[in-house]
Write a structure and sequence with these properties.
The mean pLDDT is 95. The radius of gyration is 20 Å and the shape is elongated. Strands 6, 7, 8, 9, 10, 11 and 12 form a 7-stranded parallel β-sheet that branches. A 5-stranded mixed β-sheet has the order 1-3-4-5-2. The protein is an alpha/beta fold. Helix content is 36%, strand content 25%. The chain has helices at 10-15, 26-35, 94-104, 125-144, 159-169, 184-193, 215-223, 238-252, and strands at 5-7, 21-24, 43-47, 52-61, 66-75, 81-88, 109-114, 152-153, 157-158, 172-176, 201-207, 227-229. The protein has 8 helices and 12 strands. It folds into 2 domains: 5-75, Beta Barrel (Ribosomal Protein L25, Chain P); 81-252, Alpha/beta knot (3-Layer(aba) Sandwich), CATH 3.40.1280. Helix 3 (94-104) runs parallel beside helix 4. The protein starts with a strand and ends with a helix.
């Protein structure tokens, strides 16, 4: 069984070295000591959320703190091909389901998207509150899946801003669309056959809301170089389309 993972302050985690004692405090220390009731002799990992991981044995448990005798320390390798999820805001918590599953599947960043047909809207103060909720969500999902990298959560974007951001920062953008002429698997296989995946790259997957992506939105994204792709013969919910695409990409890009 894999060891439980907790997150600690970046500077303190990176300063730890084998043979030293790292004190895990704060919310994470309380969770380890009080909620998980971990005991001396058990082994845990602690990460800074940016890929640096220390591992060791608990030497003492205090009131809301855990002392870890560090045995290993180092940077986990980042994937050669990074994956991003542009998830349209959706009702019923389906957007949150997608983000949680995507985090467990290894997504590197998520972008909340105000699509034309999104029923849920983040306006004013709610925009940052919504983003912070996703930040907490990806943090918990990273911890659950023992990930040392916590995905970045971008600020919410409308279609124009998202299209401009994607064109400027991502190597390829895939818009999941049921009427696409080719599948995601076919497109990635063609890229691999052409040798286009030999160098590190980034891929963003765009998922629409319950009502789908409008024709105007699709045209705007195609105009900046995005390509439409379908997953298979069935139409998936907003909560499952992104994670399904990430599973496929993890395999085809050699991340798994």
């Amino acid at each position: 069984m894999t060891r439980p993972l907790f997150f600690g302050p970046g500077e303190a985690v990176r300063a730890a070295s084998p043979g030293s004692v790292f004190v895990l405090g704060g919310d994470e220390g309380r969770h380890a000591a009080t909620v998980r009731r971990l005991a001396a002799g058990e082994r845990i990992d602690v990460s800074d959320g940016a890929g640096y991981r220390i591992g060791g044995m608990i030497s003492a448990v205090g009131t809301g703190t855990v002392d870890v005798l560090v045995e290993t320390a180092g940077q986990d390798p980042a994937p050669r091909h990074t994956l991003l999820l542009v998830q349209a805001l959706a009702k019923g918590g389906r957007d949150e389901q997608a983000v949680e599953s995507a985090t467990e599947l290894g997504v590197d960043a998520v972008v909340p998207w105000h699509a034309e047909r999104s029923i849920v809207r983040w306006r004013g103060d709610r925009a940052e509150k919504g983003r912070q909720k996703w930040v907490s969500l990806v943090g918990a999902a990273s911890k659950q899946s023992r990930r040392s990298f916590v995905p970045e959560v971008h600020a919410v974007m409308d279609t124009s801003r998202m299209a401009a951001w994607a064109a400027a920062t991502v190597d390829r953008v895939v818009v999941l669309h049921e009427d696409a002429g080719s599948s995601l698997a076919e497109q990635v296989s063609a890229l691999r056959a052409a040798g286009s995946l030999e160098a590190p790259s980034s891929t963003a997957v765009v998922v629409g809301p319950e009502g789908g992506i409008s024709g105007a939105e699709l045209e705007k994204l195609l105009a900046v170089g995005a390509r439409a792709a379908r997953l298979g013969p069935h139409v998936l919910r907003s909560s499952s389309a992104g994670p399904a695409a990430l599973v496929l990409l993890n395999h085809l890009l050699g991340r798994w």
